Amino acid sequence: MTQCPREMITPGHGIIADALIMHGLIKILHIEGKMEGWAERRGERFAVCADRPELNWIDQWEPMELLEIAAEAKAKGKGEESEEEQVPYFGLVYDLYRSTVDRGNFPSWISDLREALYALKSDFDLSEEHREKRGEGRARPKKRGYYTLYLPLSGVYGKYVVENYGIRQSQYAVCATCFALSTLGYIYGTVKARVERRSSSGGGHDVFNLTFIPRGRTSLRTLMTLQRMAGLVEMRPGDLNELGAVVYMLSVGETIYAVRESVDILVWITQRAGNYFQRTVGVNIFRGDRLLEAIAQIKYRAPRWPKIARQLGSSLNVLGEYLAFGGDVYHVIRSVMADLGRKGGKLAELEGLAEALKKIG
Q1: What is the per-residue burial (b if ≥16 Cβ within 10 Å, else e) of 213-242?
Q2: Which Pfam families match (predicted)?
Q3: Cα 224 → chain centroid
């Protein structure tokens, strides 16, 4: 595409929220068949060059039916206290429920999403001065048509803020465009790994979140292809850091073999501490094209790698460091072999891993 029919710019709510807004917009463009265009990073904001979405189909969109079911359950008082097997959520709504650390506010999140999607047709706005024009931000009175930006959608502007070593409740309000697109980006543009916490650590669960962002200018087709990896995966209790979790998610998920453009991986972790305090930690950016190519090589030369990765623990951290930054390949192989041996795995299944790592290095 040589000319830009329309440039749409994310509002500047922080790199996580803006990345999700970008992905939500790209998902809508994909649904409408608007495949041509590009996206690029501008600081912590993103510009998308494409035809403006029409959005005249959104009332009849299939996921809206799932949101209707969830909203009806909320109106009847179901969902908040139900056992997980009995919650009235299905499909993508259930995956979103499984990946949230704030179960108490989840029914409100779904109700708000349904309302914001209905409003999106008339409220769509990604102009450059959007945030200032709309008066979005923290500690502003929540007006009709504005929504709380829930914690998984942002690394900075969650519901709680720390001041002088204390915590006060402070909502960050956004318009229907920002709320609907960021939630769609979280659903359709993010790989989420739910990790159960050991009982010795207080129980509960953390969620590793991974999304792809352009490093320079990246075609919409490439970003749409990468959205195929989005979804929820389960992880056993372990001691994975951000890179180890990235290796796990890319290993057990769909293999994307050829990304010929420069993309980065944005990672963040949502946690719940105690009964109330929720936070985002571990916000990092890694070189995505390098990691995608490396994992594709490992899967090609060691076909049983996805199964092996599910058995490994801290050795995935060592592997992640090597794939991202280089290092001693033999140290990585020894670490993986020792880890797999402790888990009772078969070392013969590692055939091809050493060859792949040497080629990558």
Answers
A1: bbbeebbbebbbbbbebbbbbebebbebbb
A2: Cas_Csa4 (PF09703)
A3: 14
Under a CB-based contact definition with an 8 Å cutoff, are residues 293 and 323 in contact?
Answer: no
Query: How many helices (H) and strands (E) would you count in the chain?
Result: 13, 14
Order of strands across the sheet that contains 231-235: 231-235, 191-196, 205-214, 263-273, 277-287
- What is the model's pTM? 0.90
Whether 70 and 88 have beta carbons less than 8 Å apart is answered as: yes
- The alpha carbons of the chain give a radius of gyration, in whole angstroms, of 21
- DSSP code of 86? G
Q: Which tens digit of pLDDT belongs to each residue from 3-29? A: 788 999 999 999 999 999 999 999 999
Rounded to the nearest 5°, which phi and psi values hold at 199? -60, -30
Q: Is the dihedral of CA 200, 97, 138, 46 positive or negative?
A: positive
Please give the Cα distance from 190 to 209 (Å, whole number).
6
253, 212 Cβ separation under 8 angstroms: no
First vs last Cα of the chain: how many Å apart? Answer: 35
Q: How would you label 106-143 residue by residue, b for 16+ Cβ within 10 Å and e otherwise?
A: bbebbebbbbbbbbbeebbbbeeebbeebebeeeeeee
Using 50, 70 and 90 to split pLDDT, how confident is the model at 170?
low
Annotated domain spans of the chain? 1-187, 290-360
What's the longest Cα–Cα distance across the chain?
61
β-strand pairing of 205-214 with 263-273: antiparallel
Positive or negative, the CA dihedral 7, 12, 14, 18 is negative
